[in-house]
Please model this.
Amino acid sequence: MSFEIWLSFTFLVFLLVLTPGPSVLIGMSHALRYGARPTLVTALGDVTANMIQMVIAAVGLGALLATSAAAFAVVKWCGVAFLLVIGLMSFFRKPKEMKDKTGIEMKKSAVYETASRRKLFREGFLVAAGNPKAIAFFGALFPQFVDPTAPLAAQLLILGVTFVILDYTFVMIYAMGAARIMPWLVKRGGTNIIARVSGGVLIVAAGLLSLIEMPESVAGTRH
Model:
């Protein structure tokens, strides 16, 4: 793989992950509720789904998913439904009462909720897996950066690692930004405001995902 091809791929991925999408928004929502550090697991779930999508694209099935309007719609609306459900659950849930503790522990528990790593990973994974934009990218655009005359495994490793690093980094940048504003929100609206804001973020993500259409360049290959 030439440096120019890798640089073009890196720039395209940079633009893709720079724009907040469902994965970034689930990261922000988790950071608001659970803190920045637990969101590392959310981001891990996100990039794990992406790696599976890369493998699917590598074996040629991604192109089939990306060029099928029905498959695209099914994935999209499953993703919308999932985001909407967890967003509404977060928005309308009542914050748990914190029992008396001492010092810093009391302060920390009053700010952040707790969640299992399994839950964080699962939600990060499912949101990324249900994003049709990612499927279109890996299925239709990703293979265009692969040189069929060169060893496939090495190219996939380079492209995959590049994507994972950029995606993971930007999810965490947005998540840490959200975690920083959380104490400010608590001061002005109490702990209940966190559930409202984090739920609202996911509902917005569901709305944005519902507006995504199959790219014309991809859809055009069906004709």
Notes: DSSP finds eleven helices and no strands in the chain.
